[in-house]
Design the sequence.
């Protein structure tokens, strides 16, 4: 058994693996014909595991190439998707062969992070991933929006042929200081043309009194709910740059749809607390949802670029079963007004953790106070102030892969 990158003419095999593994449908002849003219996509790498030479791949992984924000910098990130194994080859290490090769390739290509959405967090911990932040999913009854103030501004529906660039601009502004958020040239290509109307999705843009766009919602009907959640089953959204834009959108939803829907469902990053903004929350349905898992691909890069507080030094022992270059103790030296200094050391580590916990702590998904409840992190210097390096920051990703 061995793993390698798939050639464009083999990409269809990854699609076949996915539909078999997840019980989907597949037009075999059509996909085989398309494979004859398939071209390499610079934003995706396909990997397959083969039982032997001349045989078809029995497992596959797709690595999506992204650029993400991290403490004021832009880093390369690999988004793991399309993980699938044919049933007859499960539990035999086929996915592991793909994942290990793909992660090592990310390191060679200069990526610093990787992210995925797990079917099981326990399963993906073996590849060095750790649970990242959370999305706070709100379901609010429309009648409970009645007391929201009218903040002015204007809402208009975007229809085929309208300019969609404000969506990209609002998304960029809303995510400007949010770690792990992906850069986008276009907010969503599936919103172009007539496709949204065919899919019964609606786009509404809120602008302030001066005509400056500040928020938008992309919604669809799920029974009696106005669905504005980004998920694999429906990539809707509600995105805003400030509280006024959110109130403007929700006030519009109440005024326009009180007779059409019972409630609205939307998600926000877990660093946003809306309890003080919504006028009535006693009847709400509110729950946190895992915002995927993350891991460091290049620990040294993250340590050099992470934003620390104050002045100090911290020896961080990193373990990584897949990328050997990360298996070191790194001495982090930081101070205001200069770049971090990072060197590999043979000295003792103040803290020991794996590549996954390193990523989510430096990214700000969790803070130092969470370390006591993370058994696989070992603190060897109990009196040291870990909150200078590990503290909560806006950290959230909306892209799916």
Sequence:
């Amino acid at each position: 058994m061995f793993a390698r990158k798939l050639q464009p003419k083999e990409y269809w095999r990854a699609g076949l693996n996915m539909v078999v593994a997840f019980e989907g449908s597949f037009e075999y002849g059509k996909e085989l014909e398309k494979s004859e003219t398939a071209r390499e996509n610079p934003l995706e790498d396909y990997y397959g595991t083969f039982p032997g030479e001349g045989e078809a791949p029995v497992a596959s992984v797709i690595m999506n190439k992204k650029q993400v924000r991290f403490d004021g910098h832009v880093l390369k990130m690999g988004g793991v998707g399309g993980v699938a194994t044919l049933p007859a080859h499960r539990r035999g290490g086929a996915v592991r062969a793909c994942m290990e090769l793909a992660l090592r390739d990310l390191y060679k290509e200069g990526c610093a992070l990787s992210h995925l959405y797990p079917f099981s967090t326990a399963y993906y911990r073996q590849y060095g991933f750790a649970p990242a932040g959370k999305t706070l999913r709100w379901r609010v009854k429309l009648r409970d929006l009645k007391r929201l103030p009218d903040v002015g501004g204007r809402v208009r529906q975007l229809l085929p042929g309208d300019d969609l660039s404000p969506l990209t601009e609002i998304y960029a502004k809303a995510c400007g200081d949010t770690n792990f958020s992906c850069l986008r040239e276009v907010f969503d290509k599936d919103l172009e043309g007539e496709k949204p109307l065919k899919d019964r999705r609606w786009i509404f843009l809120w602008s302030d009194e001066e005509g400056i766009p500040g928020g938008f919602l992309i919604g669809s009907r799920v029974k009696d709910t106005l669905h504005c959640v980004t998920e694999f089953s429906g990539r809707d959204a509600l995105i805003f740059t400030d509280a006024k834009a959110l109130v403007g959108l929700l006030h519009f939803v109440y005024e326009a749809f009180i007779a059409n829907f019972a409630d609205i469902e939307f998600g926000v990053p877990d660093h946003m607390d809306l309890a003080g903004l919504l006028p009535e929350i006693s009847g709400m349905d509110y729950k946190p949802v895992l915002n995927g898992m993350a891991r460091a691909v290049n620990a040294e890069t993250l340590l050099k670029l992470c934003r620390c507080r104050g002045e100090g030094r911290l020896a961080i022992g990193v373990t990584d079963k897949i990328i050997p270059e990360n298996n070191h103790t790194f001495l982090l030296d930081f101070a205001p007004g200069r770049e971090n200094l990072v060197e590999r050391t043979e000295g003792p580590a103040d803290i020991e953790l794996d590549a996954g916990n390193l990523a989510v702590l430096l990214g700000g998904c969790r803070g130092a106070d969470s370390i006591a409840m993370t058994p696989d992190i070992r603190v060897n210097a109990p009196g040291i102030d870990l909150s200078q390096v590990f503290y909560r920051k806006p950290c959230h990703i909306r892209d799916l892969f």
Q: What stands out?
A: The two ends are 26 Å apart (CA to CA). The longest strand covers residues 73-85. The first helix runs from residue 11 to 21.
